């Protein structure tokens, strides 16, 4: 019996990534990688990895990768949309919070590719779960240093509060569910509603410069190098969100303690109410950090 071999090309695998387009356009404009890295306030290794489509060499998630590609495309005068689409074909959509997907039939000719993709997604989900579990322990330790707020002024959690949580963006809402303290456990139905439908595409990250934030505590971030930033206050209000370049400075107001995530911790200086805060002791191996920061008078 003759065995038939499926010789159909794997279109996604043969599809070129954005690196070739970026490299060719840069050379046509007479720019070097060092010049691009300086203009974008990024390490040269990041520019080189983008041009080689070597996304595994970057510690950042797909959200950060898309931010780098948008900045690079803007510098070269290119349309970023086709570049982002080619990235999604190669590595898939943003992996920070991956909703459960229904099982689908797989053609024999594509099993190898789908098995590899499925393994990568599963590993990322497991690593993120372990990461957030570790953050919950650190956050509990940080919260214990904050002076106890008057409970009589804070209403008990009501169904309206749960609805407010459900209206947050899909990524932030899922993060809050994983790190919610035991005292505020949402009902199972609420958790189900927080999960986006499989067919919905992840929303594009919109930068929040913190211009409209108000409160009695001030958090100041000074950027010596480019870094992704997320900042929430004690009321879970989003104060900062996006990619900020070296040389920028942002001051937001809100109610401490603040919850902070830095994509490149060594490139950011943190101050609260004018006092320096040393966050570098918490930096992970990939230069990211998550921490809670209370007002100095509340620290033990």
Written account of the structure:
There is one protein chain. This protein has 300 residues and is of the alpha+beta class. 39% of the residues lie in helices and 15% in strands. It folds into 3 domains: 14-91, lambda repressor-like DNA-binding domains (434 Repressor (Amino-terminal Domain)), CATH 1.10.260.40; 108-194, no CATH class; 217-298. The chain has 10 helices and 8 strands. The strands form 2 sheets. Strands 4-1-6-7 form a 4-stranded antiparallel beta sheet, with no helix packed on it. A 4-stranded antiparallel beta sheet has the order 3-2-5-8. It starts with 10 loop residues before the first helix and ends in a 7-residue tail after the last strand.
Keywords:
single chain; 300 residues; alpha+beta; 434 Repressor (Amino-terminal Domain); 3 domains; four-stranded antiparallel sheet; globular
């Amino acid at each position: 019996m003759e065995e038939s071999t499926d010789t159909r090309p794997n279109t996604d695998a043969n599809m070129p990534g954005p690196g070739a387009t970026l490299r060719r356009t840069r050379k046509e404009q007479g720019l070097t990688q060092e010049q691009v890295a300086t203009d974008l306030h990024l390490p040269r290794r990041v520019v080189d990895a983008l041009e080689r489509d070597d996304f595994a060499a970057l510690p950042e998630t797909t959200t950060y990768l898309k931010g780098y590609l948008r900045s690079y495309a803007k510098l070269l005068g290119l349309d970023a949309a086709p570049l982002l689409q080619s990235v999604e074909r190669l590595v898939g959509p943003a992996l920070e919070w991956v909703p459960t997907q229904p099982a689908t039939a797989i053609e024999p000719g594509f099993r190898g590719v789908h098995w590899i993709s499925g393994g990568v997604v599963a590993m990322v989900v497991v690593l993120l779960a372990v990461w957030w579990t570790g953050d919950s322990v650190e956050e509990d330790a940080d919260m214990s240093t904050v002076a106890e707020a008057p409970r009589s002024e804070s209403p008990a959690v009501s169904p309206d509060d749960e609805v407010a949580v459900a209206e947050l963006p899909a990524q932030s809402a899922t993060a809050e569910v994983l790190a919610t303290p035991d005292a505020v456990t949402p009902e199972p139905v609420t958790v189900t509603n927080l999960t986006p439908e499989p067919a919905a595409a992840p929303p594009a990250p919109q930068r929040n410069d913190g211009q409209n934030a108000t409160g009695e505590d001030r958090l100041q971030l000074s950027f010596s190098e480019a870094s992704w930033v997320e900042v929430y206050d004690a009321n879970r209000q989003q104060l900062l969100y996006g990619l900020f370049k070296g040389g920028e400075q942002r001051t937001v107001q809100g109610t401490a303690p603040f919850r902070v995530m830095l994509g490149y911790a060594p490139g950011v200086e943190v101050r609260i109410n004018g006092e320096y805060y040393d966050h570098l002791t918490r930096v992970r191996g990939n230069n990211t950090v998550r921490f809670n920061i209370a007002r100095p008078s509340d620290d033990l």
